[in-house]
């Protein structure tokens, strides 16, 4: 559980405790255990998560999916819904959907198909969304999440299904012009989404948070999605209701679907709010799931409340039918197995492996793993080439990640590739270049397509001839077997005596380099 | 199975069609006759027939995930009834009922 989650839980328990007259806080937190108390409340949560698949192009046309382009510049007749334009499936989207399904242990049925979900909205130019109704690409699966009540245990959350669908465009309310018009940008229209629907298996907002954290880490690690909530590449809807034991009787409150939550923190807060609100409404009206259909509520992040969304009476009637423009998707067992073989380690397995293999701290391994599998590959290559896992970890987390963030670039497009950084760090380890100059070289490489040697030359850095130093230190060690013995028995300070002698032979020798070289030679024996 | 006026009005609403009372009365029996025509299919014995999703004998027509040229902003907006420099313009939309996946 992340520190954010712990923080949120503590913060959010306060209003519940204040309402102890309505729900006793202990009963709320341990609802299943306190069977003897009247009105035991169990929270039932299911989540629908939309992840945007990391493709170059849209689901049914060759338009770019890149975020942040000027409005209506990544569009074509297909995604604009112009008459006569026909959709063609993106093979990468299908591959990523299957990969995501396998990562969450889903069955991949041999056939799935496309359906039209029909509704009118200006950001949906065709008048229908291409989605999957009865034959989704991924069937039942599950995700194991850490159990927040029993350290080391896991809780299994069922996955009902995961299906592919196209995204809608973006509506922007234009207050500036004074006309009250809505402006429509269709760049996002047709972008591939995978909607992952969970079973109503979560029992607390903390569990919902743990599920989302786990799912997000998995999707990033497998290269399936960037999962940037701010950019809309991960969206969450929560279905929440309460099971209340009234003496011998068991009732359920009407199900509420909460939308528009823009962070995991908001998901948690919205669930907490619904628990209290639904309990209060039930006490007031006595209405149960039998008397009221599912309703939709929005989340107001500033007021920290959910609110009833205006719904037109026909809203639920989408009149799904099979899309006649598209052929069914048939996935051969061999294809499923081929994709399964690319899954590799799970994030948990990588997180467990890195500290032992590279001598880094679990915390650092976690940061690297959370940045996705490409970053793991990058780190491992740098660590292997430089022969120094700790140094590689610190450079990757500070210099590489910071530059990537500043310049908004991906690890695959990062100008200093793993081979170059590995080369540079190896030279630091060998004492050829000091740390601050290495940073200059790194910054130079970010902007110039050069080798490490070329960069060092361009910057006019005089590299120390390491073979000369090696020879000098070797000569001194041969002449001072006592120092070697002392170091081997644990007294590293003994090498200090060599520095004066080395200086006499070569006045330009760097004391730090002499020390490191001596230790390296002694330890490699 | 006769279609009630209420059902015709609901269908019209879903399809965003504005029908006069006369049209509602006229369309009801017409839709009925279409449904009756399609209903003939239920006379067939489909006991051992697998559900079919397409009449074509092909599937998996996929394309590679490669960017192709689309339309320029000006081309895209060319036929819009209302536009500005960048966007389509529509009358203010407030409700969220239809925005299932917005
Ligand atoms: Zn397009």
From TrEMBL, chain A:
Domain Asn/Gln amidotransferase: start-end pairs: 377-522
Cited InterPro entries: Asn/Gln-tRNA_amidoTrfase_suB/E, Asn/Gln-tRNA_Trfase_suB/E_cat, Asn/Gln_amidotransferase, Asn/Gln_tRNA_amidoTrase-B-like, GatB, GatB_Yqey_C_2, Gln-tRNA_amidoTrfase_suB_CS, Gln_synth/guanido_kin_cat_dom
EC main group: ligase
Protein's UniProt keywords contain Metal-binding: no
Catalytic activity entry: L-aspartyl-tRNA(Asn) + L-glutamine + ATP + H2O = L-asparaginyl-tRNA(Asn) + L-glutamate + ADP + phosphate + 2 H(+); L-glutamyl-tRNA(Gln) + L-glutamine + ATP + H2O = L-glutaminyl-tRNA(Gln) + L-glutamate + ADP + phosphate + H(+)
Gene3D superfamilies: 1.10.10.410
Keywords: ATP-binding, Ligase, Nucleotide-binding, Protein biosynthesis, Transferase
Source organism superkingdom: Bacteria
GO molecular function: asparaginyl-tRNA synthase (glutamine-hydrolyzing) activity; ATP binding; glutaminyl-tRNA synthase (glutamine-hydrolyzing) activity; transferase activity
Cross-referenced Pfam families: GatB_N, GatB_Yqey
GO biological process: glutaminyl-tRNAGln biosynthesis via transamidation; translation
Function: Allows the formation of correctly charged Asn-tRNA(Asn) or Gln-tRNA(Gln) through the transamidation of misacylated Asp-tRNA(Asn) or Glu-tRNA(Gln) in organisms which lack either or both of asparaginyl-tRNA or glutaminyl-tRNA synthetases. The reaction takes place in the presence of glutamine and ATP through an activated phospho-Asp-tRNA(Asn) or phospho-Glu-tRNA(Gln).
Family: Belongs to the GatB/GatE family. GatB subfamily.
Self-association and partners: Heterotrimer of A, B and C subunits.
Protein's name according to its UniProt entry: Aspartyl/glutamyl-tRNA(Asn/Gln) amidotransferase subunit B
Protein species of origin: Stieleria marina
From TrEMBL, chain B:
Keywords assigned by UniProt, alphabetized: ATP-binding, Ligase, Nucleotide-binding, Protein biosynthesis, Transferase
Any one GO molecular-function label of the UniProt entry: asparaginyl-tRNA synthase (glutamine-hydrolyzing) activity
Pfam families registered for this protein in UniProt: GatC (PF02686)
Top-level class of the enzyme under EC nomenclature: ligase
Record carries keyword Ligase: yes
Catalytic activity line of the entry: L-glutamyl-tRNA(Gln) + L-glutamine + ATP + H2O = L-glutaminyl-tRNA(Gln) + L-glutamate + ADP + phosphate + H(+); L-aspartyl-tRNA(Asn) + L-glutamine + ATP + H2O = L-asparaginyl-tRNA(Asn) + L-glutamate + ADP + phosphate + 2 H(+)
EC number: 6.3.5.-
GO biological process: glutaminyl-tRNAGln biosynthesis via transamidation; regulation of translational fidelity; translation
Job description of the protein: Allows the formation of correctly charged Asn-tRNA(Asn) or Gln-tRNA(Gln) through the transamidation of misacylated Asp-tRNA(Asn) or Glu-tRNA(Gln) in organisms which lack either or both of asparaginyl-tRNA or glutaminyl-tRNA synthetases. The reaction takes place in the presence of glutamine and ATP through an activated phospho-Asp-tRNA(Asn) or phospho-Glu-tRNA(Gln).
Subunit structure: Heterotrimer of A, B and C subunits.
PANTHER family to which the protein is assigned, alphabetical: GLUTAMYL-TRNA(GLN) AMIDOTRANSFERASE SUBUNIT C, MITOCHONDRIAL
Family listed: Belongs to the GatC family.
Protein name (record): Aspartyl/glutamyl-tRNA(Asn/Gln) amidotransferase subunit C
UniProt organism field: Stieleria marina
